């Protein structure tokens, strides 16, 4: 069995939202699993010197045009949320906690969080909203709420973000395939070919 694809994403990333709809069918074509790894772009930007696309002249305007176009192309529900962008530490921690219990539940929750923000306009940066999404999915929101305050989970999430940066993750979505990095949802076709050909 080939190694899983590591999928790094920030819940405030609209391109990560698109990738969350496309990565698993691509992985299945190559008989690979996907490890969903939430990260936080803020610390990565401090290292790279970058800043959110929405704050950048010209690039921000392009993004606001491009993301709805991509979603129309792939039939993905989308509406610009307000506020945007937001801090997403609460749902990121939640995914790591759920992953230890049941990776399938973690993925289901991650998809629901993305949908809540980019299709339903709910502020998932608010821990109460992140917990409500869990409850809506039939998950144990009470236990999750207690876990979000656990210093060990906070430390684990911080360590995961720092490790991602050490691996070279600087944006969302970002993929590692057998340690080969691919940044951006537009790299999925290239990644598909890379796996099919065994690299080049």
From TrEMBL:
Gene3D superfamilies: Glutaredoxin. Pfam families: DSBA. It catalyses: 2-hydroxychromene-2-carboxylate = (3E)-4-(2-hydroxyphenyl)-2-oxobut-3-enoate. It comes from the Bacteria. InterPro entries: DSBA-like_thioredoxin_dom, GST_Kappa/NadH, HCCAis_GSTk, NahD-like, Thioredoxin-like_sf. One of its GO terms (molecular function) is glutathione peroxidase activity. Keywords: Isomerase. Its EC number is 5.99.1.4. Residues 5-192 form the DSBA-like thioredoxin domain. The active site is at residue 13. GO terms for biological process: glutathione metabolic process; naphthalene catabolic process. Belongs to the GST superfamily. NadH family. This is 2-hydroxychromene-2-carboxylate isomerase. It comes from Roseospira navarrensis. The lineage of its organism: Bacteria, Pseudomonadati, Pseudomonadota, Alphaproteobacteria, Rhodospirillales.
């Amino acid at each position: 069995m080939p190694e899983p694809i590591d999928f790094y994403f920030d819940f405030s990333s609209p391109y990560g939202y698109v990738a969350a709809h496309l990565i698993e069918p691509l992985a299945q074509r190559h008989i690979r699993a996907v490890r969903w790894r939430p990260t936080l772009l803020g610390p990565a930007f401090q290292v790279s010197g970058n800043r959110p696309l929405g704050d950048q002249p010209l690039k921000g305007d392009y993004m606001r045009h491009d993301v709805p176009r991509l979603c129309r192309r792939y039939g993905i529900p989308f509406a610009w949320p307000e506020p945007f962008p937001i801090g997403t530490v609460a749902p990121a921690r939640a995914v790591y906690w759920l992953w230890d219990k049941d990776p399938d539940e973690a993925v289901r929750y991650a998809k629901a969080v993305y949908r809540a923000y980019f299709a339903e306009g709910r502020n998932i940066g608010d821990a109460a909203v992140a917990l409500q999404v869990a409850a809506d999915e039939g998950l144990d929101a009470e236990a999750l709420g207690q876990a979000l305050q656990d210093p060990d989970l906070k430390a684990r999430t911080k360590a995961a973000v720092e490790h991602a940066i050490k691996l070279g993750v600087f944006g969302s979505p970002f993929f590692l395939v057998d340690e080969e990095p691919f940044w951006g949802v537009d790299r999925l076709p290239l990644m598909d070919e890379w796996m099919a050909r065994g690299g080049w």
